[in-house]
Amino acid sequence: MRRLPFFLSMESCPRRCIYCHQGEITGTLRAPSPSDVERAVFSLKEETEICFFGGSFTCLPRARQKEYLNSLLKAPPGSTVRLSTHPQCINGQVLDFLSAWPVSMIELGISSLDDRVLSICNRGYGSGEALSALEMILDRGFRGGAQMMIGLPGQSEESSMDDLRRIASAAAGRSVTLRIYPCLVLKGTALKKMFEEGEYSPLDIGRAVAWSARLLALSRELAIPVQRIGLHESDSLGGSAVAGPHHPAFGELVRSEALVRTLASESITGPWTVPARSASLITGHGGYGLGRLARETGLEPGEARRRISFAG
How far apart (Å, rounded) are the C-alpha atoms in residues 56 and 36? Predict the structure, then answer.
């Protein structure tokens, strides 16, 4: 199904997280009005998933939410709504209200489930509250989404692995998908001040890719689909990132790393068969995957390439 995204940059967020500046991430400094949304929806010719990202949709005043949701009345039949929100703004009344519209998914910003990390980041809730919100969404029959982050202040790889296991346990086999975002130091954030004062050290690209690849592998093991890895690239994001693992193809690097680890675990010397649809994970981005495979196996890049065949 086609998607039509709208970014409500920090609209109604209950607090300012130390790492967040939605306007810099998305390049959208002004949230669209309900009239803006309605005009865009009215022009659609096919069923569409209308997405409200950024901000915290269910923290908006109820009347404002209704104005945005009513835009669906102008959409082609079969269209749905996806929204992202803050765990503190989920309860039974909120979900009763949303059930009047064809909501396809409710995504929660679950940056971490480590209470110390959540406190440092000024998230305003504890891990139990976040998991309870996710369970409530799933109990009411909605599909859920979890937006996780890596490299946050005070966070470790192992704690994020445990976070994902806890999300899987809360889901109990129900429909949950995952997004994985690296923590970047952005202009206009409290994290930038921490970085400048030596209180925070961001991940480099190599460690961020390796960490995310571990999460990706675990998500596959737990049967939790991953919707996206890395922030959506924009001119605004590129100009705002002061430090941290910013790369325009971060998700591709992570998937390449995950593939290389799988190949090396199957055989340290090859030969290897790679699906043709995954060829770019080996050869793309300056041969990133091939270089990683060579380092992982101890082979020369040329020899590693000769031992790979692409099938299908």
Answer: 19
Half-sphere exposure (Cβ direction) of 239: Cα atoms closer than 13 Å:
7
* CA dist 306 → 273, 275, 290, 298, 309 (Å): 11, 15, 11, 14, 8
Q: How many CA atoms lie within 13 A of 308 on its CB side?
A: 27
- Whole-angstrom Cα distance, residue 282 to residue 289? 4
The whole-angstrom separation of Cα 83 and Cα 108 is 9
CB atoms within 10 A of CB 207: 15
Structure-block tokens of residue 284:
């793309």
Chain centroid to CA 234: how far?
16
Q: How far is CA 248 from the centre of its chain?
A: 15
Give every CB contact of residue 198 below 8 A, 6+ residues apart in sequence. Answer: none
pLDDT in tens, 150-203: 999 999 999 999 999 999 999 999 999 999 999 999 998 999 999 999 999 999
Using alpha carbons, select from 47, 59, 42 the residue that is nearest to residue 97: 59
Asked whether the beta carbons of 103 and 124 are under 8 A apart, the reply is: no
Q: What is the pTM of this model?
A: 0.92
